[in-house]
Amino acid sequence: MTLDPSLIEDCARRLLAAEQDVREVTKITDAHPQLDVATAYDIQDCLRGLKQAAGVRIVGMKMGLTSKPKMQQMGVDTPIYGFLGDDNAVDDGALVDTARLIHPKVEAEIAFVMRETLSGPDCDAARVLAATDYVVPAIELIDSRYENFRFDLPSVIADNTSAARYVLGSRPTSVDDLDLQTLGVVMEKNGQVVEVGAGAAVLGDPAGAVAMLVNMLAARGAVLPAGSVVLSGAITAAVAVAAGDNVLVRGDGIGTTSMRFA
Ligand code: OOG
Ligand code: MG
Predict the structure, then answer these.
(1) What keywords sit in the KW lines (predicted)?
(2) What does the alpha-carbon distance between residue 214 and residue 242 come to, in Å, rounded to a whole number?
């Protein structure tokens, strides 16, 4: 179902207000059960426009639901994409204020920083690697605006795939020096290992997840601009965090990155 343009904007404004006011809302499909994926991306685009109008600069994109642990955890098995604004970025090791978040969870990811613009529809992992400036370990903090962190595919797309904060490692590594599929990643919470995985958990190859993003963007007439940060998707299940927690992700040969919570 395509929604009336005024309804698309209403949905985007409701999600923006939920984020700003730090409160849960019912998922969009409760009010609009026929909402389809294309219209859900229209709502996400509208949300992006509202944020840009308020001064947010778009710095990159993210893939989500690209690994089995995430698909099983959320009960949705289709990869999705969202956008990253400069308001989502936090510095490596920085303190994140949980009072600004509804029900935060963290994910271990591999982030790409692109040297060249990529466009679909025939993008593949080799083109992604050739266009990549460097990779770094990342922690994505997701914070669904929906009640109890529960949603379906169209609702989570409209909600910008739960994007909230992210942090990148500060040591760039060239992809020429890495095998992204066997790259091991360890997530620690308060000094205890809570999740482990390898790059191949992400659709067999994180570079393939970035290629899928480029092809999904092409289907909507968009490109992945040079300079973009791309979160390729959680390697492991997401882990809930609260004030006082300390989360660290280390990737084999690519260093570490961390977030602390107040
Ligand atoms: C949707 C976003 C998932 C990932 O890396 O899989 C995501 C969610 O689980 O809330 O960012
Ligand atoms: Mg993620």
Answers:
(1) Lyase
(2) 34
Structure tokens at 36: 């389809």
Q: Which pLDDT score, from 0 to 100, does residue 214 have? A: 98
Taking only the tens place, the pLDDT of each residue in 53-106 is: 999 999 999 999 999 999 999 999 999 999 999 999 999 999 999 999 999 999
CB atoms near residue 253 (< 10 Å): 14
Average pLDDT over residues 147-157: 97
> Which ligand has an atom closest to residue 64 CA?
1
Which residue's CA is minimally distant from atom 7 of ligand 1? 64
Check whether 1 has a pLDDT greater than 70.
Answer: no
Residue 177: its pLDDT value, please? 87
Pairwise CA distance, residues 252 & 198, whole Å = 9
Name all domains of the chain by residue range, CATH numbers in brackets: 59-261 (3.90.850.10)
- Enumerate the H helices of the chain as residue ranges: 5-21, 28-31, 37-53, 68-74, 125-131, 153-158, 206-219
The closest residue, in CA terms, to atom 1 on ligand 1 is: 161
Rounded-to-integer distance, Cα 248 and Cα 259, Å: 7
64 lines ligand 1 (CB under 6 A): yes
Average pLDDT in the 19-37 region? Answer: 97
Nearest alpha carbon, ligand 1 atom 11: 64
Cβ contact 152:37 at 8 Å: no
